[in-house]
Amino acid sequence: MRQVMILPEQREKLLENGRVNLAHRMEDGNTVDFFPVVKLFNPCGAATWWISEMDEDGDTVFGVCDLGMGFAELGYSSLSEIAALTLPFGLYIERDEHFEARFPVSAFAAQTPPQR
């Protein structure tokens, strides 16, 4: 059975964070360094996404993407594209049900973020 990628309460928090940072960008160009709300990962590989915001379109998400190539990037991803990935053995990208962020999203973009 395929897991729900983002829970409704996580979606609301992501949208709220997105609205806050949109307002900040419009006001003075600065943004809040939010903690990731959700962690998505490849269960048979090294790719991981730590997502802290979502745009009003409900698809564009902001956070850190680490495709397992030795570096992580802070930027935007498409949730529908992540959800559409099909992996070996009929697996899909999963949500880490036990994830609790202890650091802001910028820490996850660092070369060796603490306690990934």
- Rg calculated over all Cα atoms: 14 Å
Q: Kindly report the spatial arrangement of strands forming the biggest sheet.
A: 4-3-2-1-5
For the sheet with most strands, the description reads:
5 strands, antiparallel
Number of domains: 1
Q: How far is the N terminus from the C terminus?
A: 27 Å
Compute the average pLDDT. 90
Helix-residue proportion: 25-40%
Derived structural class? alpha+beta
Summarize it.
It contains three helices and five strands. The chain has 116 residues and is α+β, with helices and mostly antiparallel strands.
Write a structural description.
This protein has three helices and five strands; from the N terminus they run αββββαβα. By secondary structure, it is of the alpha+beta class. The protein has one domain (8-23, 34-109). The chain has a five-stranded antiparallel beta sheet. A hairpin with a 5-residue loop joins strand 2 and strand 3. The longest helix is centred in the first third of the chain and has 20 residues, at 8-27.
Essential attributes:
single chain, 116 residues, alpha+beta, five-stranded antiparallel β-sheet, 22% strand, globular
Task: Break the fold down into its secondary structure elements and pairings.
Elements: H1 8-27, E1 38-41, E2 48-54, E3 60-66, E4 73-78, H2 79-84, E5 94-95, H3 105-109
Antiparallel strand pairs: 1-2, 1-5, 2-3, 3-4
